[in-house]
Amino acid sequence: MSSSPPRHGRRIALYTIIASLITTPLAALVLGPHLPPGHGSREAAAQVTDNTVLTVVMTPIACLVLVYFAYAAIVFRQRGTEIEEGATTRGHAGIQTAWIVSTTAIVLFLAGYGTWALLQTGSGSGQGPVPMASADGAVLPVQVIGQQWEFTYRYPTYGGLETSTLVLPAHTQVEFHVTSLDAIHSFWAYDLGVKADANPGADNVAIVRTGDARSFDVRCAEVCGLWHGYMADTGQVVDSASFATWVAGQRKAFAPIAGSMPPYRPTYQPDPQRRAG
Amino acid sequence: MVVVVSNFGKKLAATGLVLGLFSAGLAWYIGGYLMVTPDSVASAATSAPATSELTLQTVAGLGDAYSQPTWVAYLVKDAHGVWRQSTNFTVPANSTVRVTVLQYDGASGLRNPFLARPEGVVGNTIEVDGKAVQAIDPALASHTFAIPGMHLVVPLEGVADDAPDQCEAAPCGLEKAHRTITFSFHTGSRGRFRWQCFVPCAAGFIHGFGGPMQTIGYMDGFLDVV
């Protein structure tokens, strides 16, 4: 009397379900809160949520792949020295249909979710000169000017004040206007969840609502020449009183050059230089 | 016991040897190219406590005594009073560094006028030919000495286009037309900081920012705080 062949498919499915039931809650509740970029702003916190959703969706898929891999390595391995033919491989319409339907549903869900998330506030990304997601309520406009190899910042509501450090008030909606004077740079305020390309002649808008007072990293995320790797700084989110004090100090320091500055504009076209080819 | 190596084995070994030698040579060439950097020149100690001096000159072109190409460049005076082509400087930590720049080059103009205001220097003031200034005309800037990591910017005003007896190639003597810019800054704890020129002064390169503006030993370098 011969025993019936094992139902490999059912075993793999069962193991996958068990692994997913264990790991998916862990991914959502344990790993999720620690995913980047942190909670430095409303947009950054939303990106943590987005990354958690992606992790939760991919965890069962990863379980399926890993379980299948381990199962095949253990059960289907060659035993003994004699080389044997493997089992006949046949198509299975039900499995194929389920795979196509499930992967299509996952991709469409993620596309829809991503689009919805982008339309909320722009997710901290550069949206071009006419942003799809506009700011809700009052904003503090801050222009970010990329140049080889430093970012400087202009505050049009404070008389076109330009500074070499980025300081923002806490719990304020900020509208970054990112541009460049030369090559292509990319303004990346990592902890705030902001990333926007700085293109010469373009005004790239990114919106963010700051949280509590903190410091944050600023980097260039576009290879822009010799000192690209050094094009980094630390910005500060401070309470409103400290911000007012900082602005007053900067305006005083800015006064000697204020008369030589061009009026605030979304973009700048520096005059041709004598030596610039 | 005699080991017999087939012809195929010999060919394989020979090919491997040739490839190995070629790879090693290529790695040595590329590594040597990437690692070449000027020696660092230390600032000179002064009689004042925790104070040192650094003397630089900026020139429109290097003479034959220096490395090629003869681009626009910074030079530094070493302990023997010799002008050396190096843009790597060493200064003491937690001290005051007094810098004198003999500026022999003409004006190119700043792309961002904001950088025509000294920042990060003592008193936010520099002296140009003995006169204290808090900003220069951005169009008259020839170079800057800027250390972004310290938020330090010093604009260097250029020699007038019609100035007599201009220096064409380094090293330039004090008899040649020049501007003298002096300033001081405080160093903090130890570290390596990059410094650069912000003026698009690289003649003949796109946007004036190629060549010497992207080569250590000309318009960029390191400040080692030790």
Would you give an account of this structure?
By secondary structure, chain A is α+β, with helices and mostly antiparallel strands. Chain A folds into two domains: 95 residues; 120 residues, Cupredoxins -  blue copper proteins (Immunoglobulin-like). Chain A is 38% helix and 21% strand. Chain A contains four helices and ten strands. In chain A, the strands form two sheets. In chain A, strands 3-2-1-5-8 form a five-stranded mixed beta sheet. In chain A, strands 4-10-9-6-7 form a five-stranded mixed beta sheet. In chain A, a hairpin with a 5-residue loop joins strand 2 and strand 3. In chain A, helix 1 runs antiparallel to helix 2 and helix 2 runs antiparallel to helix 3. The radius of gyration of chain A is 27 Å and the shape is elongated. In chain B, 13% of the residues lie in helices and 32% in strands. In chain B, a hairpin with a 4-residue loop joins strand 10 and strand 11. With 226 residues, chain B is α+β, with helices and mostly antiparallel strands. Chain B folds into two domains: 36 residues; 187 residues, Immunoglobulin-like. In chain B, the strands form three sheets. In chain B, strands 2, 3, 4, 5, 7, 8, 9 and 12 form an eight-stranded mixed beta sheet that branches. A four-stranded mixed beta sheet of chain B has the order 1-6-14-13, with no helix packed on it. Chain B has one helix and 14 strands. The chains are: A alpha+beta (277), B alpha+beta (226). At the A-B interface, helix 4 of A face loops of B.
What descriptors fit this protein?
heterodimer; A: 277 residues; alpha+beta; Immunoglobulin-like; 5-stranded mixed beta sheet; 4 helices; 38% helix; 21% strand; elongated; B: alpha+beta; 4-stranded mixed beta sheet
Strand content of chain B: 25-35%
Spatial separation of the terminal alpha carbons of chain B = 63 Å
What would the CATH topology of the largest domain in chain B be? Immunoglobulin-like
- Quote the average pLDDT of chain B: 92
Order of helices and strands of chain A: HHHEEEEEEEEEEH
What assembly state would you assign to the polypeptide chains in this entry?
A: heterodimer
Q: What is the CATH architecture assignment of the largest domain in chain B?
A: Sandwich
Secondary-structure element series of chain B? HEEEEEEEEEEEEEE
Main sheet summary of chain A: 5 strands, mixed
* DSSP E strands of chain B, number: 14
How many helices of chain B? The count is 1
Distance between the terminal alpha carbons of chain A, to the nearest Å?
Answer: 89 Å
* Strand residue content of chain A: 15-25%
CATH architecture of the largest domain in chain A: Sandwich
CATH superfamily name of the largest domain in chain A?
Cupredoxins -  blue copper proteins
Q: Taking Cα atoms only, what radius of gyration of chain A do you get, to the nearest Å?
A: 27 Å
Share of residues in helices of chain B: 10-25%
Largest protein-protein interface: A-B, 32 and 38 residues
